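Format notes (please read before filing issues)

Several people have asked whether sequences and structure tokens are stored in separate files. They are not. Every record keeps both together, in the order shown below: the sequence lines, then the token lines. Line labels are part of the format and must not be stripped during preprocessing.
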Amino acid sequence: MEDEKTPLLGKTLSELAAIVKEAGMPAFTARQLAGWIYGRKVRSIDEMFNISLKNREVLKAVCRVGCSEPVEAMRSVDGTVKYLFRTGGGGYVESVYIPDGDRATLCVSSQVGCKMNCRFCMTGRQGFAGNLTATDILNQLYSLPERDSLTNVVFMGQGEPFDNLDAVLRATELLTADYGYAWSPKRITVSSVGLRKGLKRFLDESDCHLAISLHNPFPDGRAALMPAEKSFSITEIVEMLRTGYDFTHQRRLSFEYIVFGGVNDTPAHARELLKLLRGLECRVNLIRFHTIPDSDLHGASEEKMTELRDFLTRHGVFTTIRASRGQDIFAACGLLSTARQQEAGRNV
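Then the structure lines:
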């Protein structure tokens, strides 16, 4: 069975070296494989013409490239495209391509569903169905029709990246390695609610940008929105970031803040945000809330968002209001889910 063969996509150079050694091939074949996978992005081993026919047949017997085309695509009126991908484990995830002038960002998923159960997120309502492999994560880029136009990748899709950190770190390693995609870490941002077990390790092992989901500067208020606050508070997160790490333009720290009307948009919240973040080299991204079914939350007014942005910026915290994209196809922040995967599965 093809699915039982070892995928080459998602393998590091040392792992490719082990594969070719086991197959009795010259050591230099490992770097040739890396070139074909991460450089040329081939779809089959047959395309690797500088590897002998005999060795290609040996490889084909036990390996496959590991890429798979999107199952479905939905295009927004603003040019955003949401793709549905099938994972190696039989699940489905969504990723979102966001073109914006000379920039093009892909929002990738790291899990099928999510354990965090944030009140404002459709993915959390879906529950957790499994972790993605590095192959699954990279396939969202590899098989993207617009892959050659990509300038940035954000791990802000389905799932909590720090709850699947091994696969996320492997994917970012391959994106930045000289034998891989050779991207600068500055092109990659990983977003997290701030899990204790993953935060320090990510900061120590990766140079990619970090985004923390904040959403309320008061611990009790944040806990009411995000159960993860109860195990690792935002004050502890900020203290770790403040005392242990240096953030500059080489490595950006940002805080994501969905603004809810009457919940976290008051002057008291603005002052507490300023107090919490004062002296930390960071930026705040204010995000419009996109209503989800059966939720008592609603988005703040444009006036409230502007007041919050201007207050923070005036007091030294660089703050922006993020443009909303893809809302009409449920591709905007917090709206990703794979409720349609049974229907998609029938079409595969």
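For reference, the curators noted about this record: The first helix runs from residue 13 to 22. The CA atoms of residues 95 and 108 lie 5 Å apart.
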